[in-house]
Amino acid sequence: MSSKYERELRQVLAGIDKGVEAIIKSCNNIEKAKMRLISKRPFLVVRAAGSGIEGSGDLLALRGDLCFPIEVKSSKVSKLYLSGRTVEQYKSLEYEGNRTCLMPLYAFRLKGVRGDSWRIFRVETKTLHGKLRQLYPSIPTLPKTRNGKSYLNWEEGLPLNEFIALVCSQLGQVEYDLNQLKIRSNRTGLEMNIEEDNLDHSNDKPKRDILTELLNRKVV
Hints:
Helix content: 40-55%
Low-confidence stretches: none
Shape: globular
CATH architecture of the largest domain: 3-Layer(aba) Sandwich
């Protein structure tokens, strides 16, 4: 991984205006607006490469509410297959993500394209909770080959500007809250239907008219 692209991503996630403006020159107005959100909620981004800790990725992006280990890749082609050392990198990220309840990411830079040239993927883990668990449905995992091996396909990743909008605005929380509300609404509707069914079954038996029975007894 060229340190040039690693530095480029580091400056953007850190909310450095010069770095953000440099990367959005060929973006449309909507992409530019989303990218600039990072200046309001930046990350502390430190370089982890060379630290000797497997699974830490190339960068660590830290903020009060979130933390991501990030493996940075770049290529002239849209598909990047993992083999040898890169497979071990992926396995280490997966292991550390599960062990520490973090969401490791891949940031894939496609060279020679205009607009937002970065795509974000998450490593599949099973121990997420809190805000990371709220975010994970919106961030795609690495696709798999026919043999079930993970690889990078730029076309299937989440654009960096959308990732920034997700982690720097209330968008992610709102989507999560709406989804939870929908789930609760569906459950409540189901429970009501079940209760109505039970009531219908119980009403199959003839009702006793206590007042009529008493009157009949009195007449007799």
